[in-house]
Specification:
CATH architecture: Roll
Distance between the termini: 35 Å
CATH topology: Thiol Ester Dehydrase, Chain A
Strand order of the largest sheet: 2-4-5-6-3
Strand content: 35-45%
CATH superfamily: Hotdog Thioesterase
Order of helices and strands: EHEHEEEEEH
Radius of gyration: 17 Å
Number of domains: 1
């Protein structure tokens, strides 16, 4: 029998400060840098949940909502939204904070799918997810719909 975990069992929060090497000529962070931070946070969530090595299988619905300026602080929140038998969907939200004014705003949202691997590098079963709060249940149901829609689209495109 597969064990169960809650989203809070594996949730991750990271913080970064946007430095000159992270920015483009407009003085805002490169999208690829933000994507890297998102992938790292999601990988940590997936590894904590699976307690196995994990790999990124899919990144979907990445939305860049607002730019992040040099010198601003970035708060990255990542949590497990849905679990299949070997795959996991992690939701990530990026919030920018101006350290001089304390103004905060959501700048990026993304959903990533990770697969856990066994010792031979093959997909490995992961613990079930047991949402505890109404917000976790909403995220679980939305991610389940996202996974089903991805499967339908993939079969139509073959």
């Amino acid at each position: 029998m597969r064990i169960e975990k809650t989203p809070s069992d594996s949730a991750v929060e990271m913080r970064e400060m946007v430095m000159p090497n992270h920015t483009n000529p407009q003085g805002t962070v490169f999208g690829g840098v933000v994507m890297s931070w998102i992938d790292i946070a999601a990988a940590m969530v997936a590894a904590r949940h699976a307690q196995r090595p994990v790999v990124t299988a899919h990144i979907s619905d990445i939305d860049f909502i607002a730019p992040v300026k040099m010198g601003h602080h970035v708060h990255i929140l990542a949590s497990m939204n849905y679990v299949g038998s070997t795959s996991m969907i992690i939701g990530v939200k990026v919030v920018s904070e101006n350290p001089l004014t304390a103004e905060r705003r959501t700048t990026t949202k993304a959903y990533l799918t990770f697969v856990a691997l066994d010792d031979l590098g093959k997909p490995s079963e992961v613990p079930k997810l047991n949402p505890q709060t109404p917000d976790e249940t909403r995220r679980f149901e939305n991610a389940q719909k996202r996974a089903e829609a991805k499967k339908k689209l993939k079969s139509k495109l073959r």
